[in-house]
Structure formats: C-alpha cells, structure tokens
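I am writing to request your help with a piece of structural work I have in hand. Thank you for your consideration; the sequence and its tokens are set out here:
=====
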Amino acid sequence: MRADAQRNRDHLLAVAGPVIAEQGVDVSMRDIARRADVGLATLLRHFPTREALLEGLLHASFGDLTTRAGEFETAHAAEDALVSWVRDCVAWTTEYRGVTVLMAAAIEDPESALHASCVTLRAAGARLLARAQAAGAARDDIDGDDLFALIAMLAWVGDQPALAPRADHLFDLVTGAVLARADGDRGARTR
C-alpha cells in the first residue's frame, strides 16, 4: 500500500473508533466519512463494508486478546486464566456498543470480514476452557461456542443502561456457573 493510502486508511480508523464507541456499530458510514472530512466514496474505497471497517479497527484488539489468552494459559492457574480472559473480552467488547451482535453473526458467516478474527478469538477461549476442564475447574458440558456466546451475552448486558449496574454481579453468576470445583462450593457440577 502506498504511504499516502496508508495515511488515509489510518486517519479513517482513528476517526471511526471514537465515533463507533460513541454511537455504536450502527452509525452511518456517511457520518464517519463526514467526521473524517472525506467523501463517502473514499471511505468505501478503503472499507467497502461496515464489517471491513470494524475488522480494520478491531484487528489489533483481536490480536491482543488472542495473545493475552496464551499469556494467561502459561502464567495462571486454569480457572483464573479462564475468568481473567473472559473478563478482558467482556470489557473490550463493551467499548464498541453493538459489536457483539456483529461478532456473533460473523462466527457463522465465512464471508464476513470479521469471521477469521472471531474464529481465532473463539479458539483462544476454547483452549483456556479446555485447560480448565482438564484441570477439573470447569464444567465439561460447555464448549468454545458456548463460551463465545456467554461473552457476547455478558457484553450485551453491559450495553444496556438499565442492566449495566448489575453487570459485575451477573458476570460472577455466569462464571460461577461455568466453573465447577470438586468440593461443590462454586458453579454447577460437571455431568
């Protein structure tokens, strides 16, 4: 990519981030172009779809969360690694209101610009979950798809003004239900 094209792309992403954080993922592409002081055609030349724009914006964050999963896997007990990573994912997804809906759809759509990143993120979580299951710290009737859906659900709760004050409590309830200890003091027992 030419240097001027890269600068334009970087400028569009720098403008789009705060706009999407403020207005949500359904913000008009025309509004983003206007705020970036470019024509809509310029925005669409760099990012032909909303999902392509989001992929460009979120690519580094997807990579960071995937890397963090690997770090947690080697530096923390299985249960702590899983809960910490899920907490980080939920916190990250609430930065961009509505992104979890697109991510959930992208998992099932190989044509989506977000598909590959979402699949990689889901796989990272599935590895942490499998490690916790092997250690006897997590239920064995949940898989990576379930975990990804639970993260989306918890992020959605954080997006809802009426429910946001309960988000931390609900996070604890959900992670407690996923985790299972042999002494039965937390979460549901494995089947």
